[in-house]
Design goal:
Elements (H helix, E strand, L loop, with lengths): L23 E4 L7 H7 L5 E4 L17 E4 L7 H9 L4 E4 L9 H7 L2 E3 L6 H16 L2 H9 L17 E5 L3 H12 L3 E5 L5 H5 L3 E2 L2 H7 L2 E4 L13 H6 L5 E4 L8 H9 L5 E4 L21 H6 L5 E3 L8 H19 L7 E3 L4
Parallel strand pairs: 1-2, 1-3, 3-4, 4-5, 6-7, 6-9, 7-8, 9-10, 10-11, 11-12
Antiparallel strand pairs: 5-13
Helix pairs in contact: 2-3, 4-6
Length: 354
């Protein structure tokens, strides 16, 4: 039987899906491991350029003609760089991190530039790496491996201690601090915490919230998970270090500026602290993420820190897992899609001028 129904009037028909508009995107500070994830997140018709170089005043011209750029925490987006970006046609900055203290948001707002970040990703990546540093410091893993590579199998100087039954202090108990605390609870440690607001999940683990002075004074292991704000800058200063136990372990996988590095050097020179694990450093810009093996290290504080056998320094890699980077890239792609659709969301720091 023939179907003699009339075709739907034009106003009732569903509009045909329009292909996404082609967008010029350039990403800075892209590692070899990150490149395939970024490329897959921005398929055709987007045109993506992945660069290893850092965005600053000397390299801002490379963004010319690109409406959208993707940046990292080591890129310098001060007022002058933002002005050059705007003059070159950039309209949207998508930061591939939660931190954004490298971006002059007021200048971006004045220039009509949009700014978005990644407000969250796998907290386990950073928390697990913080524990990797803590355990490596405590059990002298790097020293042991260096020795055995030279066929020296003595145990002298390799003695660590059980963490079970000791006290873990967590400064900053958001998602990452909570993940760190869960692992500490698994080790059977007493939990002390400090934050502007208690985390009920941490309280259920048995964490006692106390002033930071008590965290420093009573903890055997202290891990930093605070954001870098004016009020948290150098939260670990001379006074805090003086309160810490002589055999305490200090770990920082958050932001370098939380620790007064010069005061830390002086503390270590005095023979205090059992070990320190640093994945971040307050003057890391221009050093971390680069090969400086043939250069003269002009940062005397960093050079001195790395001479201590009980100090481990890694290159801001705590977040660097396939899971976390995958989430970061996916969120960044979503931020670009929101911009192209004229939307703002929880990741928007500055709405672009329209």
């Amino acid at each position: 039987m023939n179907d003699h129904r009339e075709p739907a009037p034009p106003e009732a028909r569903q509009p045909e899906a329009q292909p996404p508009a082609a967008t010029e995107i350039v990403a800075y500070g892209v590692t070899a491991d990150e490149r395939p994830l970024l490329t897959a997140a921005f398929p055709a018709p987007h045109r993506l350029r992945c660069l290893e170089l850092v965005l600053d005043r000397d390299t801002a011209s490379t963004a010319a003609g690109h409406e959208v750029i993707c940046t990292g925490v080591n890129d310098v987006l001060d007022a002058e760089v933002l002005r050059r970006l705007a003059e070159g046609g950039t309209r949207m900055i998508t930061q591939r991190s939660t931190g954004y203290n490298n971006i002059d948001l007021d200048a971006a707002r004045e220039l009509g530039l949009g700014v978005a970040r990644v407000s969250g990703y796998s907290p386990h990546s950073v928390a697990e790496f913080a524990w990797a540093l803590a355990l490596a410091v405590n059990r002298r893993v790097v020293r042991a491996v260096t020795r055995t590579r030279e066929f020296d199998f003595r145990l002298n100087g390799l003695m660590g201690r059980d963490l079970h039954g000791r006290t873990a202090g967590v400064l900053g108990t958001g998602r990452i601090g909570e993940a760190f605390a869960r692992i500490a609870a698994g080790f059977g440690m007493r939990l002390l915490g400090y934050d502007i607001a208690p985390n009920p999940a941490c309280e259920r683990l048995g964490m006692e919230y106390v002033p930071p002075e008590r965290v420093f004074a009573e903890s055997d292991l202290i891990s930093l998970h605070l954001p870098l704000l004016p009020e948290t800058h150098h939260v670990v200063d001379r006074a805090a270090l003086a309160r810490m136990k002589d055999d305490a372990i200090l770990v920082n996988t958050s932001r370098g500026g939380l620790i007064d590095a010069q005061a830390l050097v002086e503390t270590l020179r005095a023979g205090r602290l059992d070990g320190v694990g640093l994945d971040v450093y307050e003057e890391e810009a221009g050093i971390f993420f680069f090969d400086r093996s043939l250069d003269v290290m002009t940062d005397d504080v960093l050079a001195r820190l790395m001479t201590f056998r009980n100090v481990l320094v890694s290159s801001h890699q705590a977040y660097f897992t396939r899971d976390a980077v995958g989430e970061i890239v996916a969120t960044t792609a979503g931020n670009v899609a929101d911009y192209l659709a004229g939307r703002t969301g929880d990741n928007t720091l500055v709405a672009p001028a329209r």
